[in-house]
Amino acid sequence: MSSPDLFVVCKSCGSEVSPYVTECPYCGTRLRKRAPKIERQRTTPEPPAPKRAKQPKPPRADRPPRRRRERSLRLGRLRTDEIPGVRGEATGRPWATIVLVALSFGIWLSLAFFVDDDLAIASIDGDPWRFLTAPFLNASGTAQFACVVGIGVFGWLLERGHGPVVVLVTFLLAGAGGLAAADVLGGQGLLFGGQGGALGLLGAWVVPVLLGRRRGDDDEADLLGVAVIAVVLLLIGVATGTSALAGALGAAIGAVLGLVLAAVRPRVA
Hints:
Elements: E1 8-9, E2 16-17, H1 95-110, H2 130-133, H3 141-162, H4 164-185, H5 195-215, H6 223-240, H7 244-262
């Protein structure tokens, strides 16, 4: 393979010029028609380098790494019999218990100045509507608070299992019915107080629990706490001078209703 000269001499001006030009850059004389061809050395092409995998850029120190926003999943309202053993509630809130608690505080505050008068005391010989207002009244703030706690706790438990109608019927029969039965039986003490209604709700809820434990069912009910609340509610009549018999009769009425409810499938298993 021949290689071109390092330089050539212009015949016109005698200057040394590059062999790759066709005209002399000094005088412009034509040296050749075309520049000599440059032969390149043939080499085998190298295989392409493997591509490097792109690595994620490290997060900046002054900015926390971005987190993908996760969608919050919301479950729809449980429909009736959607899950075996669990019935969907119409509202999901114990409205009957809320109403009873509100009435207990509302009527007690409205008639607080008439507790010692006959306006708030139930009697067979008097106006029958007093049997509806007397279960919401108590002789003191402590007794009122204890009865409202009993109504709220056991009313909610009973309503969660059997619905609001059962709560209202149980409170009406145990509260008003207990006062009326105590008046007929000639019980001692004034005929007013919410211990009969609270004990009725307690009895209607605890009797199915006791029967279930007898069959070997497993539950998480604290029966020792239930017994303490029941004793406190029973002693309210003795401590305040109201009819203790009405409270005991209310508990008995609730227990009878509990026997009936034990044979009914609850709304919440």
